[in-house]
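Final report, Chapter 2: Outcomes

The project's central promise was a pipeline that accepts a single protein chain and returns its three-dimensional structure in a standardized token representation, suitable for archiving and comparison. That pipeline is now operational. To close this chapter, we reproduce one record exactly as it appears in the project archive, with the input sequence first and the structure output second.
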Amino acid sequence: MSDKKTYSPIGVFDSGYGGLTILKEIVKELPEHDFLYLGDNARAPYGSRSFEEVYDLTLECVKQLFDKGCHLVVLACNTASAKALRNIQQKDLPNIDPTRRVLGVIRPTTELAGNYTKTKHIGVLGTAGTVLSQSYPIEVSKFHPEIKVYQEACPLWVPIVESGKQNADDTDAEVKKHIDVLMSRSPKIDTIILGCTHYPLLINKIKKFVPEHVALITQGEIVAKGLKDYLQRHPEMDARCSKNSSIEFLTTGDANFFDENGGKFFGKEIRSKHLRL
């Protein structure tokens, strides 16, 4: 690790493992930067928790990342982005430190949604929390008021992925069920946003049941390119981020278990440390 005085990694937060699929793509775009990942595995999943719970848990973890030197934190979690981001940005940052920034994954995804759809009908697959928040329809309408958004909550998909059953045969029926429901809402859907960072690990199952003409949008590349663009537009923030090509991992759960499962999301072996909250 760099000298504490100069070590200022970009913080990446998720309720568990899913954010590692985002971090993997961010590292490709910004290989020289330092990163500190925090997975709140001990309290996952967030998808079924109330707005207040998600906000409280997310804020606590953001503060931990700030305390460890981060000036910029990415909420690589759709549920946290949907239920906590706005409050943290508007209520907490002005009091904690108005020069620090917290970004989410929903805005960059919805901003580019219009590039994919020709019919102006898109679907969103997400957790119950993300769907109930209406964040995707709200954000899409800001950038593309002509696009209609249809959503479907998939409450069991995160537990399936977290338990390593994403390739199991008995997962087919669960995946097919929700895709069929979503597609039944509009035959014109030609684009589906995977509105949860866990879902890329189910991509082979999802492709199996989604019509061939429907485009699937995963968030990793979009968020990574969006972050790179953000830093180019805010050179003062980029200057505050240390650049030693280091990556550290923290988990509120069991570090050995996190390492064993997290590598599947990150695409390579990882070594984490336990963080007690």
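Archive annotation: The radius of gyration is 18 Å.
This record, like all others produced under the grant, will remain available to the consortium after the project formally closes.
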